[in-house]
Amino acid sequence: MIRTIPDDILTRQAEPITGDSTDDDLLALDRKLLAEWDDGVAGIAAPQIGESVRAVAVKLSFNAWPITLINPVIAHVNGDPTYESERCLSVVDGVGRMIPLDIGRARQVGVLADVMVDGRPHHRRVTHPTAGVKVNMLLNGFDARLVQHEVDHLDGITILDRAWPVMSRQQRRSLSRKLPAGVVLP
Fold first, then answer.
1. Which of 15, 84, 86, 150 is an active site residue?
2. 10 Å Cβ neighbour count for 170?
């Protein structure tokens, strides 16, 4: 089940996955993330499924299937932010529809992460995914936006937190009326 605002797990910083996690633990997490996958979804973060750990599953443009990033870190950003509409499985209106919000994101990001594909470490690695061997990816456009969105979830930041400061008073009132009861806005 996808956690939605105002669930407090969405506002907490997720814990890093450590060497204490077994391969079976990581495989179970990978399968749990992918079990919530829907064809229309581009990404999902562990806190959205009730797991406060630093893992996300994303469908990047150069992959035919979702991959899981373990302990992803945005190492650098390039380019002025561009504003585009984003939706989030965790930010829905009173009837469960995702609310589109304009969010500013960098056009290019460098990401360090351990990568799992179908529950297995990627790039023929034989080390445990937390052994300190990282894959370095340079992502552009939608892929960069997607990973920034999902890493925000790991840092306890929702698209509401990103959108609110740049919204007009009228946009804020309109958004407030759409959100379910109990949601505290920034």
1. 150
2. 8
